[in-house]
Specification:
Structural class: alpha+beta
Low-confidence stretches: none
Radius of gyration: 16 Å
Oligomer: single chain
Helix content: 25-40%
Number of strands: 5
Strand order of the largest sheet: 1-2-3-4-5
Number of helices: 2
Strand content: 35-45%
Order of helices and strands: HEEEEEH
């Protein structure tokens, strides 16, 4: 029982550090040679960085992760299973609400 409690405490300590998505910076800059545009960025406690980006040609949104020489990318999905698309008007309104 003590071992389980110790493991849970360690997990809570490790996941509680770093910046989370709600505290992420809103940015608009090109990524990967201009193929993607970054719309949010935040760092974790392990010197990795997360980015929400969209493909300029398809407007599909992706989550990217980079840490040193490692990286990963995955598309973002809506609850109905369809791909999330970047909609400039909606994203601009969200940023305006967050800045208030």
């Amino acid at each position: 029982m003590k071992r389980i409690i110790a493991i849970l405490c360690i997990c809570l300590l490790l996941t509680g550090c770093g910046t989370n998505y709600k505290n992420a910076k809103n940015v608009s800059e090109p990524v990967s040679g201009g193929y993607f545009t970054m719309i949010k960025k935040w760092d974790d406690e392990f010197e990795g960085s997360y980015m929400i980006v969209y493909a300029n040609d398809t407007k599909v949104k992706y989550l990217m992760y980079r840490e040193g020489k490692r990286a990963g990318i995955t598309p973002l999905y809506n609850t109905d299973g369809s791909l999330q698309l970047y909609e400039e008007d909606k994203e601009d309104k969200k940023e305006g609400e967050e800045n208030e």
